[in-house]
């Protein structure tokens, strides 16, 4: 074995000084940095990705889609396209399905994705997910949602990540059948751990640790055993290798399930937008994934101002547990919930409605704009955007876009609304003038210059009080900020 020789620190420093001196002699002094060069640089988004889960019945899957800015006139080579590609179930040989393309910037599209079928003489339908990849201008403000045949969105197609959270009902609240769809849009296999927390504490269901999701495939896992005897489920999808998009559905064993929107990662401050009036009390789901007891304060932000639905009392729950609390004190008012806690918690709200009800979840404030692609104001349905300004007043433009009744273009309408500081506002939206009769439409939510932080959700109701669909609004970026990069010594080895 060769003996190791240690170099004294003084020798290393001397060598570095010499290198620095030679560099100074060999090159002229660099000019003083320009202050403007240290500022972040805004660049256009040219790539975006989502993944849509399989249709609950295993059949064809309508997807509501909007990508690119309305009115953008560019040659196809610059406009880019949106490509939807099948993600078949892992371990199943499926007949090849060609990609579905969309290539009209700023145009609302309702695309029907075909169901998968197995190969062989006795082919059978199989549930498969779909990747959504956008390039060029079409990637800017791109959004895709699982929709009904009418175009009404029921779930935002998820972004791939390494740590995803969902909250929803257990068996006591209608969540008897629960499953998670894991979709891998990448060329590398992903290793996934699925953890479940209920009101009884942590729950281990089957072999949910180290699940392998092959490249460009979908893996579906049942979580129904964890739902048994519980009132609430908190589900964490965490990857140790790669990344996945995930979707969770919950419902009765013989009925139509409801999608659980992804919720913000556990935090000590959360906002849950878009809680509409309903015929019966909504319910608050909370989960404390850490080991410490959480003391949670709940404030409702309503059109009249702030109220404390539980008075001065906090909602307390032990570490590594979840809880369900009825929001009876809210009454029949539109609201958002502001959650504060001494330790990080995850939160969501179940609003009674059709099926198992509709869920809304904690989100971030809108940056640049948010898009809800699948909306309708026909067939007795009413669409509204619920906006909340927890701090300073917010000023927001709502733009509705739909296919034109004549020709192949689109039509748009817009309105500017102001939300008072510390208030919630429900603003009706509908298909723009000149839209094709009965067509679905997209809504773009854009905070204007000088606006305070704003949170939003789109709510669809049938009649006066039956809630059909809630889509919490998430930012759909057109640009990203790049920090400046400078030359530097990262490491020196003698």
Q: Could you explain the architecture of this structure?
A:
With 494 residues, the protein is mainly β. The chain folds into two domains: 42-154, Jelly Rolls, CATH 2.60.120; 163-479, no CATH class. Strands 22, 23, 24, 25, 26, 27, 28 and 29 form an eight-stranded antiparallel β-sheet that branches. Strands 12, 14, 15, 16, 18 and 21 form a six-stranded antiparallel β-sheet that branches. The chain has a four-stranded antiparallel β-sheet with strand order 2-9-4-5, with no helix packed on it. Strand 19 and strand 20 (258-260) form a beta hairpin.
End-to-end span in angstroms?
Answer: 20 Å
**Regions with pLDDT < 50 over 5+ consecutive residues?**
1-30
Instruction: Quickly give the structural class.
Output: mainly beta
Please count the beta strands (DSSP E, at least 2 residues each).
38
- Could you give a short account of the major beta sheet? 8 strands, antiparallel
């Amino acid at each position: 074995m060769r003996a190791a020789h240690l170099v004294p620190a003084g020798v290393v420093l001397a060598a570095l000084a010499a290198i620095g001196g030679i560099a100074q002699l060999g090159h002229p002094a660099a000019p003083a940095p320009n202050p403007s060069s240290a500022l972040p640089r805004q660049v256009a988004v040219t790539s975006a990705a989502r993944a849509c889960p399989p249709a609950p019945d295993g059949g064809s899957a309508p997807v509501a889609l909007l990508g690119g800015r309305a009115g953008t006139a560019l040659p196809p080579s610059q406009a880019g396209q949106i490509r939807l590609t099948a993600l078949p179930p892992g371990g199943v040989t499926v007949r090849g399905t060609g990609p579905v393309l969309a290539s009209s910037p700023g145009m609302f599209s309702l695309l029907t994705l075909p169901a998968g079928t197995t190969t062989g003489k006795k082919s059978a339908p199989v549930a498969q997910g779909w990747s959504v990849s956008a390039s060029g201008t079409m990637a800017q403000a791109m959004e895709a949602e699982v929709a009904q045949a009418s175009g009404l969105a029921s779930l935002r197609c998820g972004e791939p990540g390494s740590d995803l959270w969902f909250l929803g009902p257990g068996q006591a609240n209608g969540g008897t059948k629960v499953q998670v769809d894991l979709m891998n849009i990448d060329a590398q296999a992903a290793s996934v751990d699925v953890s479940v927390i209920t009101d009884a504490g942590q729950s281990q269901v089957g072999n949910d640790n180290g699940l392998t999701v092959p490249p460009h495939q979908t893996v579906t896992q049942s979580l129904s055993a964890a739902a048994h005897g519980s009132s609430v489920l908190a589900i964490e999808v965490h990857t140790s290798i790669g990344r996945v998009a995930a979707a969770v559905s919950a419902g009765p064993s013989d009925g139509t399930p409801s999608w659980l929107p992804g919720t913000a990662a556990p935090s000590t401050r959360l906002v849950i937008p878009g809680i509409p009036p309903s015929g019966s009390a909504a319910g608050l789901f909370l989960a404390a994934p850490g080991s410490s007891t959480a003391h949670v304060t709940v404030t409702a932000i309503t059109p009249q101002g702030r109220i404390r639905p539980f008075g001065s009392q906090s909602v307390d729950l032990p570490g590594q547990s979840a809880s369900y609390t009825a929001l009876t004190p809210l009454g029949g008012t539109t609201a958002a919930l502001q959650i504060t806690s001494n330790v990080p918690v995850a939160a969501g709200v179940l609003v009674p409605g059709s099926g198992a009800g509709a869920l809304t979840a904690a989100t971030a404030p809108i940056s640049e704009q948010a898009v809800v692609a699948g909306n309708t104001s026909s067939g007795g349905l009413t669409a509204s955007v619920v906006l909340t300004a927890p701090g300073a007043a917010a000023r927001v433009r709502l733009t509705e876009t739909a296919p034109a009744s004549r020709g192949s273009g689109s039509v748009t309408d817009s309105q500017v609304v102001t939300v008072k500081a510390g208030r919630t506002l429900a603003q009706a939206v509908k298909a723009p003038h000149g839209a094709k009769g009965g067509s679905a439409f997209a809504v773009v939510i854009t905070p204007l210059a000088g606006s305070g932080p704003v949170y939003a959700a789109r709510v669809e109701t049938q009649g006066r009080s039956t809630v059909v669909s809630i889509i919490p609004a998430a930012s759909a970026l057109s640009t990203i900020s790049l920090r400046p990069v400078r030359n530097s010594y990262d490491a020196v080895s003698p």
